[in-house]
Amino acid sequence: MSNGQDYSGGYYDGGDSRYLQQEDYQHQWPPHQQQEYPHGGQWNGEQYSYPHDGQRKGERYGDPHYQQQPQYGWRDEAHYGHHGYDPRQYEAYAPQVYQARPVGARGAKERRRKRNPFLAALVTLLLLSGAGFGGYYTLDEFGFFGPDDYTGSGNGQNAIIEVRQGDSGGEIAKTLTAAGVVKSEVAFLAASARNPDSKTIQAGWYKLQKEMSADAAVLALLDLKNRYVKTVVVTEGMSTFDIYKKLATELGRPIQDFQDAAKDPVALGVAETWFTRKDGRAITFRSAEGFLFPATYEFDPDTTPEQALKAMVAKFNQVTAEIRFTESVASKSAYSPYEALIAASIAQKEVRSAEDFSKLTQVLYFRAYSRRFSCNCLKADSTLNYFFKLNGSPAKPSKDITQAELEDESNPYNTYAHSKMPPTPIGNPGKTALNAAVNPADTSYRYWMVIDASGTAAFTSSQSTHCSNTKKAIQAGLPARPC
Q1: 44 Cβ neighbours under 8 A, 6+ residues apart
Q2: DSSP 237-294
């Protein structure tokens, strides 16, 4: 400030053309010095207003609301600052500087003459892009002739990136640049501005190539074929422990994490009302078995065990709602929706076709709830095998199941030793089997047997005919147990 000069009481720094001004002059300057100002200025007793004279219109010096901050000083072609003020007061109180700049028609004309229309259009595009995507970029970043960009659709090297839910265009641009997919953030923002479909880019993981042009990157993100997901196929009838094993392999998580996540099915979205029975058997524990709907699922790489299982339960809830499973079964007095779900899971294991599903659910209901079938035992080998696998043992063909195992009452899934439906479903049935449990066939069958390798099932109401069918199965090479 040593080179400052006095301009009619104002203060001008001749070194860098800056003018320092007091922040709150109306309270600090002597009242007699605030009465008159050159160039048409007016003082209303509270603040100084400068009327429009080609330079300013309605601007108020020292007003803290003017352009969001106080304005300190003003320069025209001949004068600097407000006249008649002690420069020491300016120096003591002014916290900011006001950059001197040329004004008037001549200066504006000179500036207009220097403008580059191509550059102006480029900067306008950049500003629009930055505003739309939550970013601000300078001309240095943008480049005089346009943003730095690659050409082509990539160099063949893959990059896995994530577009998070709620990401702005600027955030996506940063992710792509950091991964080496695009050369600059500005290039991606400019390409996004050129492509109106960029607004529909979905959250998720993507498998892209490195060194793509920004336009190619936008198109790649719009193509769902580039989504990077883990595909898990759950087939009809798969048990929970098989599903957990598959999920652990595909998602790279310990199987124990899935077992722990499934301990509370209600927390996964299973309604508590499912866990009721009408047959008198108590529900001693709640299992996720039966509620993990078989389908093809696509999970993001960072999907948690809980999220994966919730997606399967949500699919189950959707399908059962579509076929009105609980409403239809609730109208039947003999069994609850949960017991019908168990029947569907057994039918899914024992037979193959939709027609056979409905016949078998009718047989199961007849055996479990009719007084015309002795012991009300289902006598289904699939339930015994479920218990074997539940305890870490392999399933057995029917011919290899011993008599002791058929008589083992300690096995709660032994439907030879225990009546009614087993404690839980023994797998996860698909929509066809669920439909069959809601709409069993109108028959009086009591027995069933798969008689050939193609899965043909023979149903009958006669035990002697059933034994004949068993012989056919053995002759066809199936591992059936003699009648």
Answers
A1: none
A2: T--HHHHHHHHHHHHT--HHHHHHHTS-GGGGT--GGGS--SSS----S---TT-S--
Q: Which of 462, 456, 455 is nearest to 483 (CA)?
A: 462
In a domain, 460, yes or no: no
Number of domains comprising the chain? 3
As a whole number of angstroms, the distance between CA 35 and CA 48 comes to 9
Residue of 12, 19, 23, 20 whose CA lies nearest to 62: 23
pTM higher than the cut 0.90? no
Q: Are 440 and 417 in contact (CB under 8 A)?
A: no
Within 13 A of 457's CA, how many CA atoms are on the CB side? 21
Do 351 and 411 lie in one domain? The reply is yes
Of 161, 168, 165, the closest CA to residue 135 belongs to 168
Looking at the fold, whether 290 and 402 belong to one and the same domain comes out as yes
Does residue 462 form part of some domain?
Answer: no
Does residue 255 sit in the same domain as residue 297? yes
Residues 79 and 130 reside in one and the same domain: no
Asked whether residue 287 is assigned to any structural domain, the reply reads yes
pLDDT tens, position by position, 46-67:
554 544 444 444 444 444 443 4
Identify the weakest region by mean pLDDT among 102-106, 243-247, 465-469: 102-106
The tokens describing 95, both together, are 């916290």
Residue 98 pairs in a beta bridge with 19
Q: Distance between CA atoms of 326 and 320, rounded to whole angstroms?
A: 7
CA-closest candidate to residue 202, choices 226, 175, 233, 177: 226
Do the Cβ atoms of 366 and 444 come closer than 8 Å? yes
DSSP string of 407-464, one letter each residue: T-TT-TT-TTTS-SS-SS-SS---HHHHHHHHS--S----EEEE-STT--EEEES-HH
pLDDT of residue 106: 37
- The full DSSP string for 358-391 is HHHHHHHHHHHH-TTSGGG----HHHHHHHHHHT
Q: Which residues contact 203 (CB under 8 A, 6 or more apart)?
A: 163, 164, 165, 166, 167
322 and 284 housed in the same domain: yes
